[in-house]
Amino acid sequence: MASAHCVYCDATLQPNSMYCMQCGQLIPQEAAPSQRPPVPAQFAAPAPAAAPAPAAMQQAGQAPGGPVPVARPVEPVPLPRTLPWQQPGRVEPPPSVVARPAAPQPVERVELVFSTGQRVVVEGTAVIGRKPADTALAMGARAVEVEDDTRSVSRVHLFLQVVDGAVLVGDAGSANGSRLERAGRQVPLEAAGTRVPALPGDVVWLGDLSFAIRSA
């Protein structure tokens, strides 16, 4: 007679035993397979995994019963110096260059063109006014006497100096003041103050009269 085995753990049973010596379960009496007690959960075999539902497969982009979708290959990222405009033989346009204003040319002498029609060429230092001779003589400078019927120009009105390639102008303490005009904008000169640089093309006002500075 073959040895009996436990229906729970398949251990060999002792003859006439009511309990299994291996798992401690009660040994059932002989019964039909359909009347056997259920197997405890800790001894039950795991259930096979259920197949995915058709709805879930459709959401994943796979038809029921169809082939498994294949992942699309990732396009390679261009490496440095492999872009079309980086290929050899291609000339890249130069960066834009901002034009800088040209430096003013050095000036050795200037021509003063007065609004009265008077023209005077000046080198070195000049004293400009209605009666500048005495002051110019004391300074060792040239006297430029202005023809002014309105008497808006002082006897000693303005100092002008051409030195080191630049032109400097300064008010001499005149009664009606002096102004430097450049590009349509007039700037008053300080009375008996610091001399300021002027450029060819500027206009200097002496009261109601003016003169333009030109390269000579």
Rg on CA atoms, Å = 56 Å
Please report the total strand number as a whole number. Answer: 11
Low-confidence stretches: none
Measured distance between first and last alpha carbons: 142 Å
Mean pLDDT score, rounded? 80
Helix content: under 10%
Described by the principal axes of the CA atoms, the overall outline is rod-shaped
N-to-C SSE string, H for helix and E for strand: HEEEHEEEEEEEE
- Give the helix tally: 2
> What class, by secondary structure content?
mainly beta
Strand content: 15-25%
Oligomer: single chain
Largest sheet: 6 strands, antiparallel
Strand arrangement, largest sheet? 2-1-11-10-7-8
Description of the structure:
The chain has helices at 54-59, 133-139; strands at residues 110-114, 119-122, 125-129, 142-145, 158-163, 166-171, 178-182, 185-188, 196-198, 203-206, 209-215. The mean pLDDT is 80. It is rod-shaped. It is 6% helix and 25% strand. The protein is mainly beta and 216 residues long. It starts with 53 loop residues before the first helix and ends with a strand.
